[in-house]
Specification:
The protein is α/β, with parallel strands linked by helices. The protein is built from eight helices and five strands. The radius of gyration is 16 Å and the shape is globular. The structure holds adenosine-5'-diphosphate.
Length: 202
């Protein structure tokens, strides 16, 4: 039987990697974790390219798509295929939240085309949080992606994605199995809520 795919999404500093690590320990066996943009060397190289060359938003989306696909093919899919559960720190919806928000405005159709053929998650946790709070947590590491206004529009887009248009002809955004959690709650409170939901699908 294929492994379960458990995804954490949310803006920078929302607590994703903290919860991924805790859940990883809690599940204990037959589980792997993956950071879409740093589990393989490609994602970190893409970040260097983006900083150096500052390409257009479309090119940026293409480079992120390349890193995502690489991690999917190398880490996520093979693990799922052998029955290992995979916990992902970002997966697919971040592509739209970061590239198709009210500031970046890349067309959703473009981002869909370059991010096709991904398995739907069994559950997607959105750690929803005010960027002012998340930025306070990660002060000192602020960069272009971590400015309040930008993260505000990423947050808005994430929330929009959790309510896909019922009349949309494609089922691309449907079936993500979102669970929205208040990311400003204490770590252990979020951890318990996550565990409650994960137990239902394991
Ligand atoms: P992300 O992976 O979403 O960028 P992290 O898990 O790295 O976020 O968390 C960013 C910072 O906030 C870390 O210093 C972490 O210890 C802290 N943190 C994570 N979750 C919480 C929480 N619920 N409350 C307070 N601080 C938190």
């Amino acid at each position: 039987m294929a492994g379960k795919l458990i995804v954490f999404e949310g803006i920078d500093g929302s607590g994703k990697s903290t919860q991924v690590d805790l859940l990883f320990q809690q599940i204990g066996s037959r589980v792997d974790k993956s950071k879409t943009f740093s589990s393989t060397g490609l994602g970190s190289r893409v970040e260097v390219i983006l900083k150096d060359l500052k390409p257009t938003r479309e090119v940026e989306a293409l480079l992120f798509a390349a890193a995502r696909l690489h991690t999917y093919k190398k880490v996520i899919k093979p693990n799922l295929n052998i029955g290992t559960n995979v916990i992902c720190d970002r997966y697919l919806m971040d592509a739209f939240a970061y590239s198709c928000n009210s500031i970046t405005r890349v067309l959703e159709g473009f981002v869909m085309n370059i991010n096709s053929d991904y398995r739907k998650p069994d559950i997607t946790f959105l750690l929803d949080i005010d960027p002012e709070v998340s930025l306070d947590r990660i002060q000192g590491t602020k960069d272009h992606y971590e400015k309040v206004d930008f993260l505000r529009s990423v947050r808005e887009k994430y929330l929009e994605l959790t309510e896909p248009d019922p009349d949309d002809w494609s089922d691309y955004f449907k079936g993500q199995n979102w669970v929205i959690l208040d990311g400003s709650k204490p770590v252990n409170v979020i951890q318990s809520l996550v565990w409650e939901e994960v137990q239902k699908i394991l």
